[in-house]
Amino acid sequence: QVQLVESGGGLVQAGGSLRLSCAASGGTLSGYTLAWFRQAPGKEREFVGGFSRTTWRGSNTYYADSVKGRFTISRDNAKNTVFLQMNSLKPEDTAEYYCAATRGPYSDDGLNYDYWGQGTQVTVSS
Q1: Could you report the per-residue pLDDT of 76-87, keeping only the tens digit for each?
Q2: If DSSP states are collapsed to H, E and C, what string results for the chain?
Q3: Are 98 and 6 in contact (CB under 8 A)?
Q4: What is the per-residue pLDDT for 58?
Q5: Please, which residues have CB within 8 angstroms of residue 89's CB and are 6 or more apart in sequence?
Q6: For residues 83 and 74, is the Cβ–Cβ distance under 8 A?
Q7: How far is CA 82 from the centre of its chain?
Q8: Which residues are within 8 A (CB) of 55 and not within 5 positions of it... i.e. 6 or more apart?
Q9: In DSSP terms, which residues pair with 95 in a beta bridge?
Q10: Quick one: 108 exposed, middle or buried, by C-beta within 10 A (0-12, 13-18, 19+)?
Q11: Which of 12, 15, 40, 108 makes the best surface tag, with the fewest CB within 10 Å?
């Protein structure tokens, strides 16, 4: 089964940028639906963005409305790593960020994901 490890979180001022990484082992990420979620203290887990599984048609990307135009997900298949580039960060982006994977179809519901990383904290100061 795939193991996921996030990194790249930290403290940044509003308007700044961070790039999160999610490195996978035990499986090839192209065979999985992948997503980033976040959870702020006292709030429910929230979908951020994700990839559908790679097929002969390629792979689609999806974003939550709250991050569209500011966040970009990408992948490096050679490194078996997924990235979340976060630009124009806002204090409301402060949360623990998680990457998740499933062999199932694309979903923005975290309940449909079987594999999770340990999370990385992102704090955006105003």
Answers
A1: 888 999 999 999
A2: CCEEEEECCEEEECCCCEEEEEEEECCCHHHCEEEEEEECCCCCCEEEEEECCCECCECCEEECCCCCCCEEEEEECCCCEEEEEECCCCHHHCEEEEEEEECCCCCCCHHHCCEECCCEEEEEEC
A3: yes
A4: 75
A5: 12, 14, 15, 16, 17, 18, 70, 122, 124
A6: yes
A7: 8
A8: none
A9: 122
A10: middle
A11: 15
Angle (CA) 12 16 19, round 5°: 80
Distance CA 93, CA 101 (A): 22
Report the pLDDT value the prediction gives residue 43, as an integer from 0 to 100: 96
Check residue 77 and give its pLDDT.
84
Residue located via tokens 């939550």: 64
Say if strands 10-13 and 120-125 run parallel, antiparallel, or are unpaired.
parallel
